[in-house]
């Protein structure tokens, strides 16, 4: 058989294998690449209603996995290095599974975030929450509790048994006494989860009636929302104070 001018069979096979490998690797790289964001940066929400809607839209993306990852690039870093103007304050738990910037799919400079065990508050925490609304007109505060909160469970057990928690952990339990007292009256099927809901509402109500924040709430410049986060679904549910 005359083979002059025809490519060697082994060369053809090797070339085909290389091409197939390249296609496969290209496909893997594409599958693993982060979702590109082409949308232009959105203007800062100026009202409690707009700020709350922005957060809940971000939470919907978190639940679905269709994330935008907005404003997380060097340009944004350089921009907010000059000045910040967050549209929300989130007071959440220290729990490693509850990161506000992630579950609301927000960007650098969008939120003031405070995290304490079980959203326990004191003068320093309250002052830190007040900072944005009182100095920069931040229009929204969210008190974000969550499912299966270890801090609430430990506080509930300590208060029920009368055995203090070790060290400064007892300060967390002490801050939750009002929520515990409400839970004792009607513990429900899951007293810890009931106490979590009470802790969210008590904290949000106290901030809403705060001598400094209250006037801002009354004139509609500030919203204070109590919200609950499900570890299982990733969904945030507003319990009180929703501005929309």
Radius of gyration: 25 Å
Provide the domain count: 2
CATH topology of the largest domain: Beta-carbonic Anhydrase, Chain A
* Count of helix runs: 10
Describe this structure in words.
The structure is a single chain. The protein is an alpha/beta fold. The protein has two domains: 1-33, no CATH class; 48-240, Carbonic anhydrase (Beta-carbonic Anhydrase, Chain A, 3-Layer(aba) Sandwich), CATH 3.40.1050. The protein contains ten helices and five strands; from the N terminus they run αααβαβαβαααααββ. A five-stranded mixed β-sheet has the order 2-1-3-4-5, with helices on both faces. A hairpin with a 6-residue loop joins strand 4 and strand 5 (236-240). The chain is globular, with a radius of gyration of 25 Å.
Key words describing this protein structure:
5 strands, 244 residues, five-stranded mixed sheet, 10 helices, disordered N terminus, globular, alpha/beta, Beta-carbonic Anhydrase, Chain A, single chain
